[in-house]
Amino acid sequence: MNGTYFLSLLIFSxxxxxxxxxxxxxxxxxxxxLLGFLSTLPPLLLxxxxxxxxxxxxxxxxxxxxHDWVRFTDFPFLTESTYLVRYELNIDGFSxxxxxxxxxxxxxxxxxxxxxxxxxxxxxQLFLLLEIGMLGVFAAGNMIxxxxxxEMTLVPMFFLVGKWGGxxxxxxxxxxxxxxxxxxxxxxxxxxxLFARTGTSNLELLNEMLHNPVAQAQLIAPLSEExxxxxxxxxxxxxxxxxxxxxxxxxxxxxxxxxxxxIVMLHAGVLLKIGAYGLIRFxxxxxxxxxxxxxxxxxxxxxxxxxxxxxxAFVQEEFKMVLAYSSVSHMGIILIGLGALNEAGIQGAIFxxxxxxxxxxxxxxxxxxxxxxxxxxTIDRLGGLAKVMPLTxxxxxxxxxxxxxxxxxxxxxxxxxxxxxxxxxxPVVAAIGTLGIIMTxxxxxxxxxxxxxxxxxxxxVQALDMSTIxxxxxFILLVLxxxxxxxxxxxxKPLQAAIEMMMNGLGG
Amino acid sequence: xxxxxxxxxxxxxxxxxxxxxxLNLTKVVHxxxxxxxxxxxxxxxxxLLSAEFVAVVQVLIxxxxxxxxxxxxxxxxxxxxxxxxxxxxxxxxxKALTAIAVFxxxxxxxxxxxxxxFGEEGARLHENNTEQIGMALYSHYTIPFEIAxxxxxxxxVGAIIxxxxxxEGAPKS
Amino acid sequence: MxxxxxxxxxxxxxxxxxxxxxxxxxxxNTVIVLICIELMLNAVNxxxxxxxxxxxxxxxxxxxxxxxxxxxxxxxxxxxxxxLMALYRNRKTVHIDEIDSLKH
Amino acid sequence: MMEIAWIVPLFPLxxxxxxxxxxxxxxxxxxxxxxLMTLLSFLLSLAVLFDRLGGSTYKAEHVWLxxxxxxxxxxxxxxxxxxxxxxxxxxxxxxxxxxxxxxxHGDERFSVFYAYLGLFTFAMLGLVLSPNLLQTYVFxxxxxxxxxxxxxxxxxxxxxxxxxxKAFIMTRIGDVGFFIGMILLFWQVGSFAYDDIFRAAEDGxxxxxxxxxxxxxxxxxxxxxxxxxxxxTWLPDAMEGPTPVSALIHAATMVAAGVYLVxxxxxxxxxxETAMLTVAVVGGFTALFAATIGLVQTDIKRVLAYSxxxxxxxxxxxxxxxxxxxxxxxxxTHAFFKALLFLAAGSVIHAVHTQDIEKMGGLWRKMPLTxxxxxxxxxxxxxxxxxxxxxxxxxxxVAAWTHGHVALFWIAVVTAFFTxxxxxxxxxxxxxxxxxxxxxxVHEAPAVMTLPMIVxxxxxxxAGYVHTPWFGTFLxxxxxxxxxxxxxxxxxxxxxxxxxxxxxxFLAWLMYGKRSLARDWLSSRVPYTYSLLxxxxxxxxxxxxxxxxxxxxxxxxxxxxxxxxxxxxxxxxAATVHTSASLGSRMQNGQVQMYGAVTFVGLALxxxxxxxxGGYL
Lengths: 508, 173, 104, 617
Hints:
The structure holds 4 protein chains of 4 kinds. Chain B is mainly alpha-helical. Chain B contains 6 helices and no strands.
């Protein structure tokens, strides 16, 4: 694979589908859906190909791309590369895993989009645009490009929620936009301050500039310790809104409940992970000392997230709400892992990002199947589903088990590694956090068992079990969840190099 | 305490009093008259600063022309205000905010100027002051001088056109 | 060394400027607003003349500038008053808060 | 054979997947798949056991997960204990598989039942083979899953749903203890492997407090799984599952996992006096506590369930008293006779379609096979001489006495008395006396059900002879590699044990067999005891009122905080923005002065900032 343009090709390959879709009449539902689905395949195949090559020992550095793009000034006292924004893409094992996850979930979400009821054409075009944004975020080599791709996800998502969502969709879309816009604004401040003071936005260069004493002399303006602290806090808030961390989580609930389930698959599966990705990439990558300084509080926040989400999920009436709060809760585990600040913790956080991506997508896939048949996801109005829809009910139960961290499924691996990390550094916090493990079991079982077990509540509905075409994505996800759970080494291996890099940055 | 200092204190006191009175009086004419005190004392200050010519111009133009013009302006407009009608605009908050801003601005500038001292003194300014001005004006500053005259002309014409009554027959725009 | 230093003049000018500014921003009568602006210009003139005597490069230039300022101020007063008359004819008021055509 | 021991759990796993995939079409033939697979497992386990009898421990590992430089491994080990447990588990599982074919006959989810059984057997065998704590934990949870699924097998019943949920959550609470203990151990020792942990416990790498702390934390896991007080409440409720499941999971194998865990980590426990004492006290207390509840229950399965809890407490007591062998020995014998009892109970339920012993009676003649088989089980559990329970129980009593736990010894003796009493109460109520049920056509169970019972009955008698003070302590010698300490027990202990069990039987006979003693002889004299026991000491209610309500209260509180405080702050910010926006638009009022004022205020602000900060914020 001679990949000078490989990454660009990978990121922008959904564009082809968007263009092709433009020529299809909007009334042709089947063609549009098929084409939309097929358009998600090229990035999937490309990313799987890259993943496979990587596992076989291909060096990802060869994939980096670099083109001059925007030059702001031409002052004689500045060197050639200062204030130069390049279009640069590069990936490491961590980004590659996220890219594979993204393209995979996009394909599955496209398959789940068969339940979309209107304006398929616009839907799929936005959907593909969203994919470009998501892929780009993970491949961006500098912060400005990262930001651009990040914003690129914001717009399609706004319309996807606002137009194809549920009853209260507009409100959800606006709160999505507002919260994330706020986060983006804060992020932009951080990026610009760094850019103005260092003259670069490239991640590696920035890293060098911020930490290497020789390179620090080349700074345009000094970055005091205090300023770095504030920059880190701002960064943390910016990605904390995306993740979301507890006081900033309300938007996410609305999106979870109102957006079409296929979009929530992507939202919970990938978009939330951008927050985690950013925290790891920029938070740990650029501000390791500050991160260390706040590590305790990050871990505490993680535990708060975990318990807060769990307790709230316990009293929700609506299954989607349960899942939404469970996402809040699970994001706590990412923070717990990051707060541990050791290899196990960071690995746990990344595992959790991937694993929650799979599990959340899995559960929302089931929600879409369920909602299609019962028109409700209110827990009390369901019940005894195992009788009428044994396969769906079984999968729901499997999803719940994965979510509550049953060994043998991916959720356990991430939970275990994250807690393993935290127990080394902050055993007391971790011990409090383990209460979350119990609460997760409590709320998940309460919700799922009330839906699937017990006497059948809905004899009126002729619920049919999932069809083969619906079952395929469900089983793909289930197999992935289980295989990561059974043999986590296959996920740990590609991440190893990236995590080692981070640990070096942290100073061992 | 030198005589110059005493004179300065007196003049400054009058100038500020005039300004403060202007802010606090209620009748428009009184306000203008209050300002005349300020203008005249500023002229006195000019004398102290060895600028006799400017002082004279100040008296002529401000205390004379501008004040008279303003008084005409007042006379030509309606001013039979009822008793107790407010003389200022805006509510309390706006005034307070403006006052605070003005005060803060004053403090900031004060901090900048209160120790300012270049240590030099133009000792020869008072010698043939008018002559010096004339020399500079007609040699070095000829073009600005001419432009100033153009400005005056333009202002004259503009003022006349603005103040002229609209033609009865002019089409309404 | 004179007993009256530069900074004292500057402070006086500052006080007058502030008075003028406050008046210009809060007075309701347009004539007074105009005259307050004159006061601010005067304050500036004091600075010019003071710098002419005590500045870094003492000389006649400062006084000349003061003269120019007075000229322009006079012109401004004339035009301002003329504009006031025109407005008054249209609106029958001299109250500045009743003139809000900028809103439209 | 030992190097292929890892295949043992794979047979039932195959059965699980195979039956999930195609079981629907196979209907009841799927039973043969399950039976065949467990038979293979059993035969292979037997081969492994014989191999191990002559050989030494075998261990194989493979990298499972790397965390930095730490490599976590997965693999299997064949130690004496593992090999022994492997056989016990696969045998009981095999027998239960056969039995279920008759018991579950006609159920529409027949194949699913077998699939779940396969999953459970896989997990249990995997648990037994685990060479390290992490893997143990993994399978530990998986057996929990199997148990959960099987308890909830009749998912349409509200009680089954509640019981399944309760079982999962209660054991989960214990598991968290296990989880914490395991991770703490890992950071102290640097490995999850049992060998490394024991080495560290021996050479003092682990501090005494750490040993105690981790041992007790892990013991909490065992408490949850083995239904020890205070996490015992799920086990009786778990009887909502089909009876073969109760026999396999909630009597013979899974609930014994807690005992197994403590046994597997025995060197760790031995290193801490406090931990040992905790285990012994919890075990002893649970034994007595559950036995008293068992005295008054009227549901046949619940009586057996409480007796299970009580017997598990016995095993814990044995381990806590330092007698590893006695614990495992009783585990084994208990597995056989309790499985037998449950299967026999299942056979009874199958015949009369009720679980209430007050509605049975007079079945001795109607069920000529089940009756005697049940009696054998009852005699074994009561500790009547010559039956297996007698030997294992005796071993425990000796251990408690020689270890110096006098109080616990007497508790154990009293428990033995209660056990004999309530078991025979059960027996007399079910099989003796008059017919009290409405079922007309009571018939003996089919051969497919009685056959496994007969096998178990033989074992319930014979299993005792692998380790007796009379004929030799084969099991003990083998489990401890010949280092078994032959303690000379005072002979009166055996006499006392026999006496109390006979006394218990006699009393039960007086009350329920001969009925010469009124049943409310005691409860009428000591008020409230009956209702206290009948309501299981109100433990469930206590949990509901404390933990349950607290969790709900916290949740509701947080949900109000979420809805009003967090959302309120967001709204407040939104309102602030809105207000300032409308304020801003109010400033656009067309008045020059307003514009001037705003401009100037802004200017002043900038000037002030510049003057006081120098332009750098």
